[in-house]
Amino acid sequence: MSTTAGERFERLTVLQVHAKITDGWRPMWVDVRKPHEWAQGTIERAEHFIPHDTVIANGLPGVPLDTPVLLQCRS
After folding, report:
1. What is the pLDDT of residue 1?
2. Which of 11, 36, 41, 59 is at a distance of 20 to 30 A from 4, taking alpha carbons?
C-alpha cells in the first residue's frame, strides 16, 4: 500500500479499501471498466462510470488534485 517518490497512485487490495473506508476515507469512486463489464454489475459506492480508455486519454478534468480518487477496474 505504500508509494515512493514520484508515484501517482497506489494499488490497494479489497481488504485495504474496506479498512480505509471503515476508517472514514471517502474517495471519489470511479468505475473504469468497459461497458459490457459495467452491465454485469456495479458497486453501490461507485459514483461515476468512465471507461479506462477515456481516463487514460483525458484524465479526470475538473477533479481537484487534493481529492482522493479510487479507480475500480476488473483486474
Report:
1. 45
2. 59
d(CA 16, CA 30) in angstroms, rounded, equals: 17
- Which secondary-structure segment (H or E) carries 29? strand 28-31
What type of residue is 73? C
Give kind and range of the element (H or E) at residue 38: helix 35-39
* pLDDT tens digits for range 57-74: 888 887 888 888 888 887
Nearest to 68 by CA among 25, 37, 22, 7: 25
Q: What is the DSSP letter of 67?
A: S
Contact 73, 52 (CB under 8 A): yes
**38 is written with which cell numbers?**
459495467
pTM score of the predicted model: 0.68
